[in-house]
Amino acid sequence: MTETGLWISDVNHSYEGKQVLHGVNFNVPAGKVVALLGPSGCGKSTILRAIAGLIVPDQGRITLDGRDLTRVAVRDRKLGMVFQNFALFSHMTVAENIAYGLAGLPKAERVARVERLLDLVRLRPFAARFPPRLSGGQQQRVAVARALATDPAALLMDEPFGALDRALRSELQAELVRMQEDVGITTVMVTHDQEEAQAVAEQLVVMNEGRVEQVGSPEEIYDNPASLFVNGFIGHANRIPATVTGPSRLKARDETELGFNRALNFRPGSEIVVTCRPEDLALSTRPEQGAFAARFDRAVMMGPLLNIEATLPEGSQFKAQVPRDGTARPDRGQTIWLRPNPARLQVFPAPQA
Amino acid sequence: MADTALIPAERARPDLGAILYWGFVWGAGILVLIYLIGPILLALLMSFNSGTTLAFPPKGLSLRWYAALLDPVQSEPIHTAAKNSFEIALCVVVMVTLITAPAAWALARAPRKMVNAVEPILLAPLVLPSLVYALAALLALSLLGLGPSFIAVLIGHSAVFAPLMFRTVLGLAQRMNPALEEASATLGASRARTFLRVSLPGIAPGILAGAFFVFMQSLDNVSVTLFLGEPGRTMLPLRLFAMLEESLDGRVAAVSGLLILAAALLMFTLRRFTGRAAR
């Protein structure tokens, strides 16, 4: 039985002697949306280009629904791609752009297909316009329609919202999710924006420096990050350098001792980094067991929440998010105590200096 | 009293500066415009002269020189020369387009280092006096056993004027988004189809603008034509020279008038065309 979906296996690639992909492995289940997420230069666009066939990776295999694509030429891959700045043909109308990949079809069929896609992306009134006369959001929809016109086996999108206003994005993301559900096409999206990835994709592939750091649902990645990098890249993570003192105890640099309700997988004496999400900290104006003393810098109201910024004695910044429950705010410079929820702490080996 | 006198003087100073500044900008600008356009207007005016020779100011207005120019019996040599010149210019444009457009398109995709190495060589004919090139080409061609001929002029003009189109096409080709061709490929288009449907429309304004420059330069060229052309085959600029030498023939002004009109019309349509493509 052949495996369905898109499989990327052990892909290595170098540019001008510099290795940009290190054994990349992940798969996209048939009909699902996966987002490749990472900082710029992490190799996410390179892997997308390898899937599209715009580059041939040095090593590794790319298969789609059991078909080995690795050596197949770009134009024979039958994949739809949405480019970063949409790459629309500005000398062709919207309808001509969408029809571009349909040259092999009889005219009547081609016209019918173009009309169906115009309806799908709700651009029928704009069929005769030239792309430069469209708004950014409309251009994006033309790009999606053009990519879907050939009935591709998978849809690839490179920063599809990158060229759009922030205000437009969430609306178009919802639109894309709706359309993807209608069409049910296996989709890979590249983005550096974690909110965008979480809004659109069911699975995230977090990449850093040419490696896959973690693959999982947005919840898995947020709640159980596989590495310090993932922890800090998806959402905010306060970092506390510490030393392991017992099977489930550790001591932070500032002598604060923390007890865990679970066993730590570190030998006593190991240098580690404990991380804590802002929303897992409780605020107190009195010393408390297992709480970090910090200098209160400022607080910003955000709806029902208060975003607090504080500084630990050794100088590192701490962010906390607490309910705005009517208690008096501390004064600037005042000492406060931030107590993490031990169940929600993450522990990683200290990064090599 | 001294104080009050100072204040208006101080206020007046920047005004004077501004007057001088704008006076210079406008004055120099208008002088340059007169210098550029004046002779052309003069030639146009003289072409409508009703007198018997080329003279300014015209004695009266008439179309007699245009009539004389169009008369097939009287102006047969001019017609032949014009036909020869247009023939050459058209052939040169075709040849330059066939060589230059692919070269510029390919070079826009080549590594930066290679472009930097090749570009000065390709642009050399632009800075080299065409007289020098013409002489060199004559010597080189005679070594190959090819004397002055239509082919020699065609090769000569193509080599000397190709850089004009190369520049206009390379500029556009380098600014073209490489994702456009990639998009075409992902949509299943062959390389040929991608070039014809995506790349070519992208560089077409450059080809058109370049073709215009090359055509006008070829039509106008004297030195290369003089060195490489067959002695018996007269070309328009050479014919005009001869006519001016023989007598101050008013038909020369009429030829100028027609050329000015043609150039203006071409430029106007070209601007409309490339203007639309750029938007």
UniProtKB/TrEMBL annotation, chain A:
Gene3D superfamilies: 2.40.50.100, P-loop containing nucleotide triphosphate hydrolases. GO terms for cellular component: ATP-binding cassette (ABC) transporter complex. One of its GO terms (molecular function) is ATP hydrolysis activity. Keywords: ATP-binding, Nucleotide-binding, Transport. GO terms for biological process: quaternary ammonium group transport. The keyword Transport applies. InterPro entries: AAA+_ATPase, ABC_SmlMolc_Importer, ABC_transporter-like_ATP-bd, ABC_transporter-like_CS, Mo/tungstate-bd_C_term_dom, P-loop_NTPase, Transp-assoc_OB_typ2. Residues 6-234 form the ABC transporter domain. This is ABC transporter ATP-binding protein. It comes from Amaricoccus solimangrovi.
Automatic annotation (TrEMBL), chain B:
It is found in: Cell inner membrane; Cell membrane. Its main location: membrane. One of its GO terms (cellular component) is plasma membrane. Gene3D superfamilies: MetI-like (1.10.3720.10). Residues 82-271 form the ABC transmembrane type-1 domain. It comes from the Bacteria. The chain crosses the membrane at residues 20-48, 86-108, 120-144, 150-173, 194-216, 252-270. It is a multi-pass membrane protein. Keywords: Cell inner membrane, Cell membrane, Membrane, Transmembrane, Transmembrane helix, Transport. The keyword Transport applies. InterPro entries: MetI-like (IPR000515), MetI-like_sf (IPR035906). GO terms for biological process: transmembrane transport. Belongs to the binding-protein-dependent transport system permease family. PANTHER family: INNER MEMBRANE ABC TRANSPORTER PERMEASE PROTEIN YDCV (PTHR43357). This is ABC transporter permease. It comes from Amaricoccus solimangrovi.
